[in-house]
Amino acid sequence: MVNTTQERIDRTLTALSKAVASQAAALMALENAPERALLVPDRLTGGTRQRATTALSALTDAWHWYSVLTDLAGRARALRGDRARLDARAIDELDLLLHGPVPQLGVRPAKLASRTDAALRTVRTCIDEITAAWNTHLAIVHTAEQRIATAAATAARLRLDDDAGLAIARRLLAEFAERAATDPLSLPESLSAQLAAAVAAAGSGLDELARRHDALPQALREAHELLTGIIALIEQAAADAERARGRVLRSRASLTRLPDNVLDDERHGLRTWLDRLTATAAAGRWKEASRGLDRWRELADATAISARRVAEANAAMLRTRDDLRGLLAGWQAKAVGRGVAAEPELAGLYRQARSVLYTAPTDLDRAAALVHAFGAAVDRRTSSNPGPNPEPKPGPEPRAGPGSGADSGSGSRLGADGPARSRPDGGRGPASAHNGSSARPAGKAPGRGVAATPRLILPTCRPGSDSLAPVCRQGGGRPRPPVDAGPTR
């Protein structure tokens, strides 16, 4: 019967032999792995170098301990041999060799095998951490390189090889790539964020420049179309002013115009400025032309608003006169239909109003007062005396003056189909732009057969001045002054 001491020796020797074989495989795998090159301290810096130095020290210890264990296992196998039974002397020697302390190390073989395994795990963990960090940073570098290459292609197309944003992105990429290669474990996240932001800024900036470059020809065409429209408005305003001059008068309004140099001022005249921008673009300085066109468009849009208001204000003068004529004709038709037109009071008021309205220049304020008085008188007279024809034929519609239309923004609206008034037949006319109702005689409520007194709401354009400021304040405020590097008008 084999004693327990021999069985214990055989178990220990078998376990030690297996441990040595496993360690040999692990050591060879580490030495032959491509990532083993990441542990060369001379290629590393910072925290990564410290970790690599520690791992290399552990690897050196593992090789040494492995050699000690290999020698010890070899000696034990030689002493054990293949004998079925060991004598007492062999058992004592093997027990001391396998279970006693290893000379110069002071630990038992089993403990030394555990230390060797731990050292190998340390080396493997360090290599894995460095590899993972390096792969992560390599992906960032690869993505940044691709995006920078795309931005560089855009810059080359635009002939902007000296683009500042692209230069910053390239510098940060070089710095990031160098630190990722030498110290991947200590690379700060802030540097990665800076690189991503710089690459994104360079790409978006060049994309915007490309958009400006490609859109500049169309933007110049649209600018010339806008200028043509402004010139047409200025000419229309001048034509309306010429037609109104000598034909109408009004105490609270005057004919207006834009400054004479709004088109041809040397610095900021819309026509001369646009000509310079067109020439700049043709010379290849498209960035300068595009940015200048933005400032030109701001001034042009403001000028277009002012020109439109000037044109509407000038057209409103004759349009108001024509509306008063139509309103007077409507009240007269009602008076005739009710058989009261020949009464002295009504006939006198009608003659006065018609005389003022058909005499040049027409005093609009006086004409409005007379038409209002005549309408009120007709309303009072017909409400007490319906007459033979309570439903007279409506009066003629007022003529549309120059520049009139549903979208006119000059002054108060007189209604889409004529002046805001009560209809001469006693019904309600289009609502006033100011109060939405017509006046009626004091003390009388509107009712069946009682016509409301008409109330004419005239435009409220106020006198302007020779400036870019709008002359009619309804519908908007002052336009912004031009944004430009030079002085403004």
Task: Write structural notes for this entry.
By secondary structure, this protein is mainly α. Among the domains are: 4-135; 214-310. 61% of the residues lie in helices and 1% in strands. It is built from ten helices and two strands. The chain has helices at residues 4-32, 46-80, 88-99, 109-157, 164-182, 189-244, 270-282, 286-337, 344-357, 364-384, and strands at residues 248-249, 362-363. A two-stranded parallel ribbon has the order 1-2. The N and C termini lie far apart (120 Å). Residues 387-399, 479-489 have a biased composition (Pro residues).
Can you give me a brief rundown of this structure?
By secondary structure, this protein is mainly alpha-helical.
Discrete helix count: 10
Report on the biggest sheet. Answer: 2 strands, parallel
Gross geometry: rod-shaped
> Percent of residues in beta strands?
under 5%
Distance between the termini: 120 Å
Write down the Rg. Answer: 50 Å
Helix content range: 55-70%
Which stretches are poorly predicted, pLDDT < 50 over at least 5 residues? 390-489
Strand order of the largest sheet: 1-2
